[in-house]
Amino acid sequence: MSNVQVAVVTGSNKGIGFAIVRALCKQFPGDVYLTARDPGRGQEAVAKLQEEGLHALFHQLDIDDLQSIRALRDFLKQKYGGLNVLVNNAGIAFKVHDTTPFAVQAEVTLKTNFFGTRNVCTELLPLVKPYGEVVNVSSMVSSSALGGCSRELQEKFRSNTITEDELVDLMTKFVEDTKKSVHEKEGWPNTAYGVSKIGVTVLSRIQARMLNEKRKGDHILLNACCPGWVRTDMAGPKATKSPDEGAETPVYLALLPSDADGPHGQFLSNKTVRTW
Ligand code: NAP
């Protein structure tokens, strides 16, 4: 088994994830895994970094596919005995003018952004080694969507005692409510992406709390962040930040020094803790 440190970035064949891998290749003292659901796109991205003189390794990972997540888990366990840095970056968003029915958008968006990310965490968090870092890429849209929730939902999402099961039930309820066209009546905002990212931010707060309770001595730091408005296929060419600039906050959180005792369980943008 290798003693080398290892970092894994989900959804990193393009966009912000690719830029995170590029930065980690330059700054992380260990093996950096670029992962992609499509091996062809993943290997192409690794080759692009190679042309820049950077060496990333590749492993397939589709966060919608539990078998794929478990294959990566088993690989990391066997080759490295765990992992040191996990960046949950993979995500999707329907375009504003997409005419796909809202209930379908809700189901598909929540499936990847919330349930897929959660499945990766369920399988990989137990493998994270002491002094490791976990970064969940959320969005400022999670904050604005929270503001659009009913007072009752806001209280639940801001609660310091909400459990992961309760959060899963709420995310499931959102999808069900959209199918019955009652989501607005039930206090939800009209944004599937926003609700999925509320899920990612709240999940991060819960996971950080669980680490405090169950692995206090391990000094693992886990946070959610917004990369900013970044020029990628998701956000388009008018966005203000380059992918490398968008990678800055996730990379800052992935490389927190081992003697840092925070941030932990926070939501950050521009390397600054934001009020949730
Ligand atoms: P992007 O250019 O569309 O890239 C998204 C990446 O996620 C791609 O590599 C995509 O792979 C991958 N992905 C999607 N579904 C996946 C799955 N099931 N399994 C594994 N990988 C999957 O988007 P981006 O702008 O870089 O976004 C990266 C993250 O930042 C997302 O979580 C997004 O919500 C968040 N974010 C972005 C912005 C922004 O302004 N761009 C703002 C706030 C937050 P394929 O190539 O195979 O599709």
Q: How would you describe this structure to a colleague?
A:
The chain is an alpha/beta fold. It has a single domain (6-274), classed as NAD(P)-binding Rossmann-like Domain (Rossmann fold). The protein is built from 10 helices and 8 strands. It has helices at residues 15-27, 39-51, 66-80, 102-124, 140-147, 151-158, 164-179, 192-214, 243-246, 248-254, and strands spanning 5-9, 30-36, 57-60, 83-88, 128-137, 221-226, 267-269, 272-274. It has an 8-stranded mixed sheet, sandwiched between helices. Helix 4 (102-124) runs antiparallel to helix 7 and helix 7 runs antiparallel to helix 8. It starts with a strand and ends with a strand. One of its GO terms (molecular function) is carbonyl reductase (NADPH) activity.
Summarize the structure.
With 276 residues, the protein is of the alpha/beta class. Helices cover 47% and strands 16% of the residues.
In round numbers, the mean pLDDT is 98
Distance between the termini: 41 Å
Q: Give the CATH architecture.
A: 3-Layer(aba) Sandwich
Q: Write down the Rg.
A: 18 Å
Family: Belongs to the short-chain dehydrogenases/reductases (SDR) family.
EC number: 1.1.1.184
Keywords: Cytoplasm, NADP, Oxidoreductase, Phosphoprotein
InterPro entries: CBR1-like, NAD(P)-bd_dom_sf, Sc_DH/Rdtase_CS, SDR_fam
Question: Helices and strands in order, then pairings?
Answer:
Blueprint: E1 5-9, H1 15-27, E2 30-36, H2 39-51, E3 57-60, H3 66-80, E4 83-88, H4 102-124, E5 128-137, H5 140-147, H6 151-158, H7 164-179, H8 192-214, E6 221-226, H9 243-246, H10 248-254, E7 267-269, E8 272-274
Helix pairs in contact: 3-4, 4-7, 4-8, 5-8, 7-8
The structure holds NADP nicotinamide-adenine-dinucleotide phosphate.
NADP nicotinamide-adenine-dinucleotide phosphate binds at residues 10-11, 13-17, 36-38, 41, 61-64, 89-93, 112, 116, 137, 139, 226-227, 229-230, 232-235, 239.
EC number: 1.1.1.184
Pfam families: adh_short (PF00106)
Protein name: carbonyl reductase (NADPH)
